[in-house]
Write a structure and sequence with these properties.
This protein has helices at about 30-40, 50-60, 70-80, 105-115, 125-135, and strands at about 5-10, 15, 45-50, 85-90, 100, 120-125, 140-145, 155, 165-175, 180-185. It has about 190 residues and is of the alpha/beta class. A hairpin with a 5-residue loop joins strand 9 (about 165-175) and strand 10 (about 180-185).
Length: about 190
């Protein structure tokens, strides 16, 4: 069965974006982008909320042809364009670039999607992840902790009464100071 993997960059103090939605504190270099390209190319689909999808759709469809793009950025653009995308939105009327719109997170539908053949499913967006967490649908959490304290912004996790037990599945330190922390459900098969 495919896994749902929530991947997110986060500041050391727990924010995923600054107070004005800025992401300029992300330390993305060739090593980190190459790693992300390798991880994402192996996925079976991207599961995104509307905001994440619209942010990606505003940049990546033309990035592989942009002379200012590095080869790794162009590679990511091709991965994003080719990857099937499921966009969870109650308001979005249409989505391009290999995307399907789904109105609500329905646990039975997500479980049926997980049972299909193919690569794992990458979950993007904090609001969508919160909905998946409420339904206990996330199998693995991958946090890219950036060595910066931004002081304020949007916290990755909202207060909740739900406790989720996880086990450490792996770590990786990048040369720019970013550290990947991988946590899985205790019943998930161990992977490297």
């Amino acid at each position: 069965m495919r896994k749902i993997i929530f991947m997110m960059s986060v500041s050391l103090d727990g924010f995923f974006e600054g107070p004005d939605r800025e992401l300029d504190w992300h330390l993305v270099d060739d090593e980190l982008l190459g790693h992300c390209n390798e991880e994402l190319a192996a996925m079976g689909a991207f599961l995104d909320g509307r905001v994440t999808y619209e942010l990606m759709a505003a940049v990546w469809p033309a990035a592989d042809a942009d002379p200012a793009s590095t080869p790794l950025m162009a590679e990511f653009a091709r991965i994003w364009l080719d990857m099937p995308k499921i966009v969870y939105s109650r308001t979005l009327q249409q989505a391009g670039w290999n995307a399907t719109i789904v109105r609500d997170v329905v646990a039975e539908e997500v479980m049926a999607l997980k049972a299909q053949p193919g690569g794992d499913l990458m979950l993007g967006g904090a609001d969508l992840a919160a909905a998946f967490m409420r339904h206990d649908l996330i199998d693995e959490y991958r946090f890219y902790v950036h060595p910066v304290v931004i002081g304020r912004g949007r916290l990755l996790f909202r207060p909740s009464d739900t406790k989720i037990d996880l086990r450490l599945a792996g770590t990786r330190a990048f040369g720019n100071g970013v550290v990947l922390l991988r946590y899985q459900r205790p019943d998930a098969p161990s992977t490297t």
